[in-house]
Design a protein that fits this description.
about 0% strand; mainly alpha; elongated; about 90 residues; single chain; 4 helices
């Protein structure tokens, strides 16, 4: 997964930002924040996770599907991504 290692710093920055959002959400819940504020924070965390997923998935598709010269390997990767997307959208 060289595409992850190439973008490791960027990905870790995003993950750490998401961690901060989750921490803020936890503090809001503990502090008795208004429902709308909590829902807004939940939506922000979900959006950030979704963006991270799309970034890694896009790089994966390019590296392991689009640029894969061997058809059987491409087919295996497409099937793996299809399984992943099925579990992701549950």
């Amino acid at each position: 997964m060289s595409h992850i290692h190439e973008n490791l710093k960027k990905l870790l920055t995003r993950v750490r930002r998401i961690g901060g959002q989750v921490s803020a959400l936890e503090k809001s819940l503990e502090g008795g924040a208004d429902c709308v504020d909590v829902l807004t924070q939940i939506a922000a965390v979900r959006g950030a996770m979704h963006g991270l997923m799309l970034e890694v998935l896009n790089a994966h598709l390019r590296a392991h599907v689009a640029d894969e010269p061997e058809q059987s390997a491409r087919t295996e990767e497409v099937e793996a991504v299809a399984r992943l997307m099925k579990s992701y959208f549950k």
